[in-house]
């Protein structure tokens, strides 16, 4: 993997460990010569992961919609800052630039980005690993919900297993490097209907 997109909050949240792990993830990416692709801001966990990469000598590419420049204050120390016109263009560009995705703690935006990437993978639009760094159990309830989706027949088990999860950065990156995408398609074969 040459580049990983990280989705995360533009605030720090209530637990110091979120910031600590964001910085450590950035440092680890730099040490493994993996470039960061992220939302381009210098605030919250977004800024922390970028600073972790940059301070360890790595490369960080930000993708920021023009209308967020004043709200998410663009990070001025990035290797590259790409300005786009819309949130959809932002996600598309981040997907185009990366070989995999990691979600850190975040709010609605982080979840929306994570689930769009999962949906694209489920539909076969890409075969990239998608992972959650489950810091201090932040995503436990979400993981349980995806298991409920399988139990209730609304999500295939093979698609639920596309979501890689760990609370350890090195383990998560190893899972991503060894990821094998599912071969089962989302759609029912018309010949069998």
From TrEMBL:
EC number, UniProt record: 3.2.2.n1
Enzyme class, spelled out: hydrolase
One GO process term, biological-process aspect: cytokinin biosynthetic process
One Pfam entry name: Lysine_decarbox
Organism domain of life: Bacteria
Catalytic activity: AMP + H2O = D-ribose 5-phosphate + adenine
Similarity comment text for this entry: Belongs to the LOG family.
Name of the protein this chain belongs to: Cytokinin riboside 5'-monophosphate phosphoribohydrolase
Organism: Flavobacterium hibernum
């Amino acid at each position: 993997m040459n580049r990983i997109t990280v989705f995360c909050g533009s605030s720090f949240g209530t637990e110091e460990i979120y910031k600590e792990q964001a910085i450590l993830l950035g440092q680890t990416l730099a040490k493994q010569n993996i470039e960061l692709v992220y939302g381009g801001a210098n605030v919250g966990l977004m800024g922390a992961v970028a600073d972790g990469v940059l301070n360890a000598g790595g490369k960080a590419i930000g993708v920021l919609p023009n209308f967020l420049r004043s709200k998410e204050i663009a990070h001025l120390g990035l290797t590259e800052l790409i300005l786009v016109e819309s949130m959809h263009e932002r996600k598309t560009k981040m997907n185009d630039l990366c070989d995999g995705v990691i979600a850190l703690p975040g709010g609605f935006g982080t979840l929306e980005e994570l689930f769009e990437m999962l949906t694209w993978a489920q539909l076969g639009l890409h075969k990239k690993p998608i992972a959650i760094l489950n810091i201090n159990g932040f995503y436990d309830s979400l993981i349980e919900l995806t298991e409920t989706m399988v139990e209730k027949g609304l999500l295939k088990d093979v698609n639920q297993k596309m979501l890689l999860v760990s609370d350890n950065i090195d383990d998560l990156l190893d899972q991503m490097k060894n990821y094998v995408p599912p071969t089962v398609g989302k759609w029912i074969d018309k010949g069998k209907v």
